[in-house]
Amino acid sequence: MAVLETLIQYRATIAYAQSVAALNSIPTVFSASPKVREAFTRFMAAANAKPFNQGTLVERHLLIISAMIQDLGLDAQISATDVDSFYYPELLGRAHEVEQMDVIVRSRSYEPSANNDPRSIG
What we know:
It contains six helices and no strands. By secondary structure, it is mainly α. The protein is globular and about 50 Å long.
């Protein structure tokens, strides 16, 4: 149930660390659920697709949540509309974009070069 709760809480922000951790636990937590495992496999295919399609990834993410809801017997209480709708303020979205850009800029400053490659010492 904790994996489902996390994916629902972070469904507007799939790349957040909490969501990624929950996604990565699916193969073990839902090992006995073929529908959830299939939904996860399809999600991973979309995540690794070239070219990448964000719309497909979001759709597959919501399908994982729906499969979990069915597997846990909660489909009478939680509808597809409940899963599809969420609150995500525009200002929070902008803040998230700034965070992502900061990570990208910082990661570029750590790219190996002749000056900072430890193999070039000595």
